[in-house]
Amino acid sequence: MFDFLGPVDAISAITLLVVAGFGLFKLIQIYTHKIYLGNKDYVVLRLNPISLGKSVDSFIKSIKPPFSFEVSIHQLGKDVSYYLVVPRKRVKELIDTPGVEEAHEYSVFYSTGQHVGAYIKGIETWPDVDLDRIDFSKVNEVGEGVTIQFLVNKRTRKGNLANLRIAVSAPSSFQANEIMASLKNSFLKYKVVETSSMEFLREVSLREFSEKEGMSWQY
What we know:
It contains five helices and nine strands, in the order H-E-H-E-E-H-E-E-E-E-H-E-H-E. By secondary structure, it is an alpha+beta fold. The model is unreliable at 1-38 (pLDDT under 50). Keywords: Membrane, Transmembrane, Transmembrane helix.
């Protein structure tokens, strides 16, 4: 294909094609995600623990599935945010609740950083996790993000099908792994399976239920 080019020119041309191809792939990904967000049939709600009048844990357990409950820290600052993501048709029944307000879609992933993830297995009830005691101490104020995602899909005879995930993003793999190690301490009594696959990170971002990670919770 490059018979008319010298060795250096050929390598440069191949490199440009690879870079161009990768850039096109990223553009397609971004465009597809924007279409997805534009057509999404869910709404992100922010929870204010002080105004709810009850614990966040108790409030979430009163919500009918499907929903995603997310405990997150954004890439700027160290404030912990609580989000409830529900189908759009159910917003009216929740939006007037004290401590509940509609929020913008968000992402904790650092665009040029390193990402690590984990999911929890072997739980038959709502996990015994004190939300106020989750160790976020290793998260720096700039460039590092975390989300702990409780994705409850639907109710069956055995309980509610659920995924419990942790996703961490940081400028370096060392920082990301350090944060993950501290977060895992809040789940010591459970089986934690680490993964850095792009498929896992995609499912976290799009809040897609995974049969492989699935558990059946009674609560």
